[in-house]
Amino acid sequence: MTVRPIDASEHLDFVRGRSSVSFLQTPAWAAVKAEWRGESIGWFDGTTIVGSALVLYRQLPKLKRYLAYLPEGPDIDWTDADLARWLTPMAAHLKAQGAFGIRMGPPVVTRRWHAGTIKQAIADPVLGSLSEVPADELDDTAIGVVATLEQLGWNEIPTTGGFSAGQPKFNFQLPLAGRDEDAVLAGMNQLWRRNIKKAAKAGVEITTGTRDDLAEFHAVYAETAERDHFTPRPLPYFERMWDAMTAEEPDRVVLYLAHHEGDLVAATTMVRVGTHAWYSYGASTTAKRDVRGSNAIQWQMIRDAMAAGATTYDMRGITETLDSDDSHVGLIQFKVGTGGEAVEYLGEWDLPLNRALHRGFTTYMRRRG
Predict the structure, then answer these.
(1) What pLDDT, on the 0 to 100 scale, is given for residue 164?
(2) Which SUPFAM superfamilies match (predicted)?
(3) pLDDT tops 70 at residue 326
């Protein structure tokens, strides 16, 4: 197995031949993350490409040494019992590019909890986190990957509530394979079904927008950030995301707008790569929350994802808290109402290539955080 750089078109051709990969592993994502240097790499068995990855390089101040980051990647055969034949040549290539360390997020699911299990766990005062709840599904092969990574010198990055500095370890997903709209709707809880009906009765209209509508989306997004106490991304970030991703595939990212009597009450973005669709960003106004624009816009995205052939609708990260007194539990309860499932990934892992530089970088990031 050999690893070498590939151009964006070769990378995209490989992605198109897969059922799906993370949108963070598409060539276009390099243009979105402009503060990093992007490189597409491929794994070759002889002359045949068998794996790919987008690598983002973050330079150390004043040194031409880099952290090589593969968000939700690489896209390789994680079921291979001999993972070293994939990861060892990757590490050698990245080290040759000046990397002092590698960070990756293997797209491997270890555990799944169904909606009913989570609902019962939230009601149980003894249980404080998702990790304390017996999983409905456990992947022994994925657990084996953990042991292999540790043997190869990789270290899992600690998380707080399921979140690290990078991508979330816990996500919430709605399975769509083999289901029609009636089945998905029937799987939702009574509150979700009632709110969808309420939005329709109130006259909430869902439309898709263009690049020119991003400013309107961003205004509502900024309002949401202030209300929910998080730091919003600037408008140019979303414009860059739109330009890069729609250039790669015209329907890679779609902007949704929910209006009520001419007022924008909610706005979201959905990203799709093959059979996997992600609810990536969402916003809603404080005014007119009673018309349930957020439920209506989610239902439209789910329906559109199904129509496009998606088998998974991904609502992205959740914390693992189940404490009813924790403000984050409301996000889990909102997503659980869809009837989906919580999934735990392997998390993000580090491989130091230069231990002194890696230790210094880790200390700097910990102090900055």
Answers:
(1) 47
(2) Acyl-CoA N-acyltransferases (Nat) (SSF55729)
(3) yes
